Give the backbone structure.
Amino acid sequence: MTKIRRLVLDVLKPHQPNALDFASALAGLGPDYHITLTVIEVDKKTESTMVTIEGADIHFDDIKAAIEKMGASVHSIDEVEVYGTGPT
Amino acid sequence: MIFHKNKHLVLHSLRAWTIARRYLITNGFDGALTMLGMVTGFHASGMTELPVAISACLGAAIALFISGLSSAYLSEKAERENELRELEQALVVDLTESDYGQASRYLPLLVALVNGLSPLLLSLLILLPLFFAEQLQALPSPPFINAMVVALICIFSMGVFLGKISKTFWLWSGLRTLIIAIVTVAIILFFGHSL
């Protein structure tokens, strides 16, 4: 059994929702989610962002679904921090 | 909770509100001015048969409703689809199930309803003195004049609303639209009496 503590995602998003709304929506998915969003590059219609999610038990599927719901896409998982909670 | 879940869709709707507001004024002004023109024309021609005038005005109001509804829906849907396609190309993803996809499906309907209902509701409001002509017999002015006054009030109110949007002096903005309406009435009366 494992739990994800930290995730760094490369996310390509449209300009709307803006970085604040986008990060707030992700933060609302978990009781202790801590989100850091850095805009790497701004294009005519899109923004390349680096999203760092920290929490005691991060649900990647929920995060990915929320990102896609907002019209963005996960390009890659750049960093993960996972810990084991004992044998399954 | 529902609001929270659909927060981004609501944000899209709020952005669409500025488009809908533009349509509200444009087509509302169209409707009010058309009704003003019709009742002025009936008054100038000396029409006394109210049912005929009401039928003609209602016909025009319904045509304005259908025209506003369909034209805004078709143009807005085309715009939204084009916008969505461009965004999909930029993001290289299918946005059908995203908030953008939902917005591009529902917002044309919202905008179309505003565009269709604004002339219809304003027209019905302007026609109220004709509908209630019997009950308003106590008034010294004839029903067509009453309808013209209601139309002028509606047009002035739209000008005031425009003034509020543009944050300019509301009275000047209202008077500007009122002058347009009065000029229209003057032209119709001129031609009505000279024919």
